[in-house]
């Protein structure tokens, strides 16, 4: 709670307790009022402090991509490329299965899971049969091709061209046994959670996908 | 409508779907000189809202007009900076 409001209205507060910068001009005894030069100096000081705390003014977006299924690879890439088109400085930090999106070879063979999604045209019991993921993935790939939807590779290459920074989580690279060369050219490796956190702290938009 | 503008360049993104119309528009407008007008031809119905939203949220571009007809959506964007 704001104790000022509990203590009573402003007129109950002794004049000396009112911070100088909030005091009405007429309450300041003549001779104690800051001079124009002092005020100007104070304004300069505050403006300098403000300039230090604000960055270059550019908009930033930070996305954490954690999923590697065909359907879940799209949202981070679509948002990253679109934000880049808006002039955002975009960083996408890929961790766990999100790493598959940056893996040059594996990104071309992302799968769609046929189980656990009640919107699939087949019941879960059937979807769990061997080979069903391949069937639903082919179905989805056909829809993507028929609809002229960009492929994951196209979106990734486009985003890289637009200056989006793709980061591959080093811990997950080691965990999966991948090599730096497995990723698309331009992908940043050797980064961890602290890098992602700094980007998120500086960003105007932060998303976990 | 289009005759009102002196079109410097036409970008054909017919067939492309989200996010490509916006992404390619951004790429094309960056290649134009300040003040030049880009015409964008799209078949994605979402491009009407998306290019409008993009232009409103992006510095240095101005959406002049959008038209709809013959299954083609036309957008006129000026580079302002």
UniProtKB/TrEMBL annotation, chain A:
InterPro entries: DsrE2-like, DsrEFH-like. SUPFAM superfamilies: DsrEFH-like. It holds the Pfam family DrsE_2. It comes from the Archaea. Residues 9-25 have a biased composition (Acidic residues). Residues 1-37 are annotated as: Disordered. PANTHER family: CONSERVED WITHIN P. AEROPHILUM (PTHR34655), PEROXIREDOXIN FAMILY PROTEIN (PTHR34655:SF2). This is Peroxiredoxin family protein. It comes from Halorubrum trapanicum.
UniProtKB/TrEMBL annotation, chain B:
This is TusA-related sulfurtransferase. Gene3D superfamilies: TusA-like domain. Residues 11-35 form the UPF0033 domain. It comes from the Archaea. Coiled coil: none annotated. Belongs to the sulfur carrier protein TusA family. InterPro entries: TusA-like, TusA-like_sf.
